[in-house]
Amino acid sequence: MSAHLDPQPTAPDAYDVLVVGGGINGAGIARDMAGRGWKVLLVERDDLASHTSSSSTKLIHGGLRYLEYYEFSLVRKALQEREVLLKSAPHIMWPLRFVMPHDAAMRPAWMIRIGLFMYDHLARREVLPGSNGVDLRRSPLGAPLKSHYTRGFVYSDGWVDDARLVLLNALDAQRHGATILTRTACVEAQRDAEGWTATLQGAHQETLVRPEFPGSPSGGRTPQGGGLGGAQGINRTVRARALVNAAGPWAESFLRGVARPARGETLATKSLRLVKGSHIIVKRAFEHDHAYIFQNPDKRIIFAIPYERDFTLIGTTDVELQGDPGVARIASDEQAYLCEQASRYFKKAISNDDVVWSYAGVRPLLDDASGDPSAVTRDYLLEPQRDGAPLLSVWGGKITTFRKLAEDAADLLGDMLGQRRAPWTQAAFLPGGDLSGWIGAAQRPDTDFERFVAAVGARHPWLPAEVARRWARAYGSRIDHLIATSQSLADLGQEVAPGLYEIELRYLQREEWVLSADDVLWRRSKLGLHYTEAQREAVKQWMTSNNQGAAA
How far apart are CA 551 and CA 513, in angstroms? Predict the structure, then answer.
């Protein structure tokens, strides 16, 4: 299936559902609907997960701090989803323990204990251990911290490779029959009594979406995203019985500027508050495998999380954003804030000079009139409009609850299409997540993955251990698609950059919608963080010379 568009189709292609937006919500809805037997088309103007869905704090978590805002329903829903997700894809998600050093000036210990008790018991846990206290003076967990932090609390949540989570949902949607078009903008969607006529526009050449990297002259993103207009290229017309607006930060502007009502109708729209969350990456600040959650004087929290083996991820901020979310980037005062707050806790201060990478994501939150951006609800709202052909808009949401959001959306869409079909994703694996062919019956997501890595090494002893582990993490049991017939390093082709062989690049082009070096280095992997500028340029040159012009 080509990612490019056929010129001048003879008649509009017909679908049950057109999903606009290739972030986590759009990909999740496309997967769920396709798995229920509906004919689905998903369009994304840029690469999958180009914007908010690759710029999160990368946590599968209930949201401990939301308890202070009485968001009990949201926290329960998120806590219920943690273990569902961890079991579905143990290669890209795994349990993570968090250490909260106690600062009596922030919150009293009794309040934290009550909050953690609720966090442990609001939803059933099978995999994740409960919370406990820790003496930081006698624990390795206290070693990186300033000496006056003598006690703390430890609790469980999870980690996720957010961009690959989006990719796996798109792959599963395609496996169930959905059509996925990247670099394809929906520039007009006209409603009538029977459905929607959408004009899609595919770029003649790829539009790169770069993360912010120190020294990069652009350091930003393309001017629009989420399936909105802007690309110049070949037009194509499609018909769909229902339209899903999953354009994330562009959901409001999509309804105001792209979707067109039938004569005599209006399209209602909510108001979004765009809240920028920025993160910094520094060299590894501690040696153990736990993360930290730090309380700040402004009552906000930041995380310090082990990242990509050699680094620590610190974030996030909550800053109201005015203007185009497509060009959001970290501001100097946000970086200074993150350094300052982390330095309140770590013995070794974090400074601007320690920052090796930074990124900013824009959260599309429903405007609930909260004065504090940190207090704006992270829950989602699905808004169906049934006045004419079905329209469903997705407002808000967080990555942890994407599967439940998609399931609820598919139920609503089924009702609007005249046939509610049974949900199926709760017990389903995401692509690569079923490791039983390698290790037998599942036991625990974290230990299952380590058994899988050992099995990969045993089956392919010639594969460098670091490459084997990275491939196991990225592809899970789909590693067979990559090296099923390979017998030696020579079969992997040229090593374009350290640990990155031609066989993987061709696989990414063939099966994961990859068209640019940035797709490879910053979304399908984070190899760009480990490479020098010269090594990143080598990947770019290879992609330029070997671009197949299509993605599976």
Answer: 4
